[in-house]
Amino acid sequence: MIEIRKQNQAFGLGSYTELQSSNPAVIAFLREAPSTEGKEDDLVLCVHNFSRFAQPTELDLRAFNGRHPVELIGGVRFPAIGELPYLLTLAGHGFYWFRLRKDAI
Predict the structure, then answer these.
(1) Fold of 2-101
(2) How far is CA 22 from CA 18, 40, 54, in A?
(3) Distance from C-alpha of 3 to C-alpha of 62, rounded to nearest angstrom
(4) Can you give the pTM of this predicted structure?
(5) Pairing of strands 26-33, 42-49
(6) How far apart are CA 99 and CA 39, in angstroms?
(7) Where are the domains of the chain?
């Protein structure tokens, strides 16, 4: 996890924006580092489950329509964000860290 944080400027230098979660046991926020010359923006979505039980949540991510969440630890690409609320299910005390990519991998 430390290595992942070092690879993503958004964690250290980025802005913090909390997102509304449909589930009070789940917190979601964005970390965004400004784009630098020759590099795309570093936009990371963090979703954390504070319950010991699996929890679903819906997030309003319409502002990022067309982007693909790519999980930072395993590199797994999730379905593209669309107009509808984005549904995620997290394991007990589970979390996701996603880079929101503009391009399809």
Answers:
(1) Immunoglobulin-like (2.60.40)
(2) 13, 30, 14
(3) 30
(4) 0.86
(5) antiparallel
(6) 14
(7) 2-101
Phi first, then psi, for residue 63 (nearest 5°) are: -65, -15
* Whole-angstrom distance, CA of residue 71 vs CA of residue 78: 8
Distance between terminal CA atoms of the chain?
23
Helices (H), the chain: 2-7, 9-13
pLDDT-derived band at 81 (thresholds 50, 70, 90) equals very high
Separation between Cα atoms, residue 34 and residue 22, nearest integer Å: 28
Distance between CA atoms of 48 and 60, rounded to whole angstroms? 16
Which residue do the tokens 């630098």 mark? 36
Residue-wise pLDDT for 15-71, tens only, equals: 899 999 999 999 999 998 876 655 666 889 999 999 999 999 999 999 999 999 999
